[in-house]
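help with this.
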Amino acid sequence: MYKVKRDVLHVGLVAGLLVAASAQAEEVSWKMATPWGGGPWLERDAKAFADYASQLTGGDVNIEVFPGGTLGGALRVTNTVKSGVAEVSHNYINYDYGSDPTAALLAGHSSGLTPEEFMLWMYEGGGVELYETFRREEFGVVAFPCSILGTEIFLHSNKKVQTLEDFQGLRLRTSGAWAEIASRLGASTVVMAGSDIYTALDRGVIDAAEWGSPELNKPTGFQDVAQYVILPGVHQSGGFLECEVNQDAWDQLTEAQQEQLRLAGKLSVFDSWLASSFADLSAFQELEEGPNELVQLDPSFVDAIYEETRAWEDEKAAENEWFARVLESQRAFKQEMTTWQDYRLPIGAMGR
């Protein structure tokens, strides 16, 4: 039902959908709830979806984007949409991790999928059908991917971390599934709002923090109060942001408009991948040229993270049917991807 066929991307068919929508539907104006106070997820990604929605529906679906906290709790966006306070959202499914840990698999988690693998799994490996069905059955909203998340920096830290031994007792700000897995690996995890991280690092309340990719971390100033930049971000190798739609509002759309909104999400994912990937290049270059020390994790530590993550996944799958279903799909896809390196050059390999 969900999959937007490649033919939809052809100009002729898109034009046909526009005509069909205009002929069958009235114009609607929606409010979009977000958790974002600003930055690229609000100004670039959420607004890009709203623009695509208007363009693809011929102006029949108009979306006004609101910053976090305006229409409801910034971390309760799903409830804001389900209740109808907002008709649509731009959100991070992992904020609902406490309700169902399956959210971690769909948002991105340790030893998960890279951004490029995630897009392939979503749109060619059956992921997007699982995503929409899970959200509808378990949360009562219609949801689909709307932005891609780049590989994060593993840590901004005031302690040098390379090995599993270095990780023991580390006072680490994190959240969600990684908070559980990092604790199992020996860290002392602390959950705090993103706005508190800078001060906590500066005053020594925490030793280290994880937050986002180079582009997202650059304006936080973490690099100014933490000497070490630890890589690679195996705890969050990639992920997605979503758009959620209130079920009643969705049902009032024509089938053509529903497909147009799904397509708007897919185009927004592609746009966000281009923009964020390019922005990460310059942001990381600044870290390389700056005063911080860049540290690569020891391969044995990376292996330990993968091993502990797999044990955590197996435990969750044993007690949660949806978790098991999504995990099975992702693991099968990972196996399919093992031959990728046999015929495709790694990104960046041609820079000689």
Observations:
- The longest strand covers residues 141-149.
- The chain has 16 helices and eleven strands.
- The chain has a mean pLDDT of 92.
- Residues 255-289 form the longest helix (35 residues).
